[in-house]
Amino acid sequence: xxxxxxxxxxxxxxxxxxxxxxxxxxxxxxxxxxxxxxxxxxxxxxxxxxxxxxxxxxxxxxxxxxxxxxxxxxxxxxxxxxxxxxxxxxxxxxxxxxxxxxxxxxxxxxxxxxxxxxxxxxxxxxxxxxxxxxxxxxxxxxxxxxxxxxxxxxxxxxxxxxxxxxxxxxxxxxxxxxxxxxxxxxxxxxxxxxxxxxxxxxxxxxxxxxxxxxxxxxxxxxxxxxxxxxxxxxxxxxxxxxxxxxxxxxxxxxxxxxxxxxxxxxxxxxxxxxxxxxxxxxxxxxxxxxxxxxxxxxxxxxxxxxxxxxxxxxxxxxxxxxxxxxxxxxxxx
Length: 333
Description:
Layout: E1 9-15, H1 22-30, E2 37-43, H2 50-54, E3 63-67, H3 74-84, E4 89-92, E5 98-99, H4 103-114, E6 118-127, E7 147-149, E8 163-166, H5 167-172, H6 185-194, E9 199-211, H7 226-240, H8 247-264, H9 270-286, H10 295-304, H11 310-332
Parallel strand pairs: 1-2, 1-4, 2-3, 6-9
Antiparallel strand pairs: 4-8, 5-9, 6-8, 7-9
Helix pairs in contact: 6-7, 7-8, 8-9
């Protein structure tokens, strides 16, 4: 492709305390086979050596460095990137991850063929510390078959970094990430789906996700309670867009979150989490939020339906049973 006619793609990279990973991430973006990029690096006032490491990447004129004067968090950094972007398409990359060299070419080819407003793709997790030669890159191909998405889009993972988006959609719908909350990808994922009609999926693991012990996805702390506020934001979006056809998907995902929160959260936050789950379940039942249930949902539903303190005792017993099962499996290995 000739870069004189190719649409400009804005790659937004929030940076905060990632000195051990930053070079690998930016190199994977700079080495994309698609060349017409602006790489917007939002440096969120790191306290490690991240800012200094950026200097030797700035010889690439495609890199646009935006510096926050104070740490504002991931949502604010991504929002700054959106406001700085001038490309026709936007893609997010977290600064401790790596992308396959063909990611943007494949997405752009799909967008030009189909008129897609959003293109999603798969990811492959890898353990922190793995050697570069062992990274799970997908097989190189020249053509990737895109699958048109209807409501199946909502079943996909929420991660912002699994989306290639037409910038006009973000601007016209005022899509932003909520400030001050963890799990900020939830509202963005749902709002994006509700704002688009042409959605396609590339079933290729173009995105390599680094699994770190400090990842929010591994959290057991108070931040898990933010999920209740996040769920409320999505409920409001569904009401605003009158999106009755996807309420069951949302309900299923909420109940998956309830299981995760109640079985993982630190014990000192358990009573608070249980109260919030009870309120959430009552609200969903009143608003006729229904979904196909599984055994986990039925167990949580049964326990939260008990009066206090039986419900708390029930959850504690469930957590103990799960820990015993985990220990038994570890011994059997």
